[in-house]
Design a protein that fits this description.
Elements lengths: L4 H13 L3 H6 L8 E3 L5 E2 L2 H12 L5 E11 L3 E11 L7 E12 L2 E11 L2 H8 L4
Parallel strand pairs: 1-6
Antiparallel strand pairs: 1-2, 3-4, 4-5, 5-6
């Protein structure tokens, strides 16, 4: 029986919103390679690198993140979710919209992320917000 993909996505969204690093890590592949392409095009290549950037990000108590699945494809052992998310560095900031593509594989009876690709809709605004500029 194939696990509930919608529940897996929601659990991952909750891990991000709640800054729960242990839950976040539990949703990642157990393999050595996990490409994560961030908004500026840089590609991290391992789960450890992805965890490291999230560990730092989760320390910031001010940001808000809200994701919505726009499209999904679920197979027997692979699944894909196209997500549009709103990010605010601080609650009072304008939202920054970003596309996020997750590819999941079925590992040990659970959906695990094997690829993560981010694309900011307005990269200059995103870069300025991330650098603390106004």
């Amino acid at each position: 029986m194939i696990p509930d993909f919608d529940a897996a996505i929601q659990a991952h969204f909750d891990a991000i919103s709640n800054r729960d690093l242990e839950a976040f890590k539990s949703h990642l592949t157990g393999r050595e390679t996990l490409y994560t392409i961030v908004q500026n095009g840089y590609a991290f290549k391992t789960p450890a690198e992805l965890v490291s950037i999230h560990q730092e990000w989760f320390k910031d108590p001010h940001w808000t993140w809200e994701g919505t699945v726009v499209h999904k494809v679920v197979g027997e052992d692979m699944a894909m979710a196209l997500v549009k998310y709103d990010y605010r560095p601080k609650p009072e900031d304008e939202k920054l919209e970003t596309w996020l593509l997750y590819v999941f594989a079925l590992e040990e009876g659970e959906w695990r992320i094997v690829h993560d690709h981010n694309t900011a809709l307005d990269f200059p605004a995103f870069a300025q917000a991330m650098s603390g500029g106004s």
